[in-house]
Amino acid sequence: MLPRPAKKKHGKKARAEEDASNGPAAENTEEPSSPPEFVLPEKLVQAYEALEKALEEVEKENYEASLKWAAAAVKNFNSSPSVNLTDFEHSRFGDREKPESARARALLLDATYKALSGAAEEAKAQLLAVGETMFAAPSVRVNALIKAACLFMTLEQDLSGCLYTFQQALTLCPDCPDVYLHRGQINLLADHIEDAQNDLNEAVKLKPDFSVAQAQRLYTLYRRALSENKTSLAEQRVAEFKELTEKYPECIETNSLYAQVLTERGEFEASDALFAKAIELSPTSGMPYAHRGLLQLRWKQDQAAAMKWFQKGIEVDPMCELALELLGQLAMERGEFEEALTYFNRGIEQAKTFADLTHLISLREGVKAQIHACKVYNIPVAEMFASLQQEFQQKMAAAAVAGGF
Asked: What would be one Gene Ontology cellular-component term for the protein (predicted)?
């Protein structure tokens, strides 16, 4: 007798039993599809690419090219439509800093170049705006505020505005040694020696290997010892400066400040060696050449040697305002009016602050007035400028003492 076929079951229980007997259902092996890549506006892409190139040129020390790329980056960031951050993260730039932060970085670089190129008022406004950008990187905001604070002094001698802006930077980053360094330098210029010393002590405390802060701190201590007529302490500071230059032989600030100290003490040969070292460390900056030339005037009253260094300064750095001014003043003393006018006009083109511009224009107009007087009153050139020689040499000596890099 054949077995009877099993009776087919129906209902939920039957279906459950059937599923169990057939084993687990086949798993879905397909991965969930990722969202499509978001296409950024072309202007925003160009802004990021320009910023990247600007920063690359900084690394290469090709600042003219960097300046142009920075300006292009700012222009493209400003003209690009806004983008949702979620969409941005799904773009090919999604792993980079967000657009608002990148824009602030571009503005900082662009403003830095503007300040160096003479557009200091515009630069200050731009830097203050970066400092207030909430979504910018804190380091970018602090850097912008430090530079803006310094411009308050450079442009307007506005110490209160300067110190307030430094305090804004410290609110963002209380442990930033750069803020204390620059505020200390400003306090030193304002003859607030104790405040300067406190700031520079804090900078060194926060960053013990901060060679620039150490040099500025030591210079402040040296100036304080002199002001208090503590000769033995001043001598000790000079010895400490020598040790510091040996510890940080590649630090331009250390070499330049020590050279300034030695110049003030009349140790011209040793000072000259340090200026030579500074030129070696920074061969494309006109400033060390200009200061070495000033030293020749104070040390040996050697105008020919001074002119050689001034001319070398504008050869390597055609925008060096100090070297152009000094060449103009040397030409004035020799009675070479047209040459003096040429140098002063070039200096005016490079003036970075209103005070510098006013000073250079006054020099130029003074030369024009002397030319006019010689022509109208038939005064010999040699006689006209003989009376100015002593004043000129005094100015050169004062500039050598007050100099720095």
From this structure: mitochondrial outer membrane
